[in-house]
Amino acid sequence: MTITSYAQAPASSITAGGETFAYRELGPKGGIPVVFFVHLAATLDNWDPRIVDAIAANRHVITFDQLGVGASSGAFPDTLEAAADDAYTFITALGYDRIDVFSFSMGGMIAQDLIVKHPGLVRRLVLTGTGPRGGKDIDKVAGTTYWDILRATLTRADPKEFLFFNRDAVGKQAGKDFVKRLGERTEDRDKAISTKAFQTQLKAIKAYGRSAPSNLSVFTGPTLIANGDHDRMVPTELSRDLQRRIAGSELIIYPNSGHGGVFQYHEEFAPAAAEFLAE
Fold first, then answer.
1. Residue limits of the AB hydrolase-1 domain (predicted)?
2. What predicted TM-score, i.e. pTM, was given to this entire model?
């Protein structure tokens, strides 16, 4: 029986390069898989099931923990480029030489580093809530993150409600709904990220923001870029910047939404992403 619900996806692991990668897979096997690259501080439990399930209805989906995160072994590396190397180790260990990518935020940065080094690996690319290497103000992510964690702590909320969503009535409700969906898996949940790994990720993002731009023109595959119109973490303008750098890419900007615009608008975005990846 094919599992198409992320809440039911079994926990798996594979050892490669002397380290163990934790991952989950679901959807019909065969063909090119869609590998999901997750955001800052996130584990396997941080993917919106509404988006994963929509894609897994017709595609083989693989989500994984980078090294040093969740149930994976090792340490998160000092650079996102090294994290992309780890991802390549994981993908090739599973036996794939061609994948599609769905990425969000930091995951989109790692995915870009992956395609720059291995332009033939990725067929179709989805970049959400992310920006290019050297992108304006990416290095300010840490400041925004710590401020919103403080605000969330004071109101006993999940920091993602502040970081991903606007603080108007619509955004507040979208944030609560999103956090609730993340709790739908009740058994065999992932380990939370360690403070050390989280701080290393923040430093790696800062370095990414302060480094020279990558040559994204090496990637010629179909690309879908999406964000909210008021992203405080990775400014929305950087999604437009990505569209200019990747020839022929499509861009969707959702109104009245922030960093988590694709989660706030999951009813529109999930089928659009599934359709894009199915072409």
1. 34-262
2. 0.98
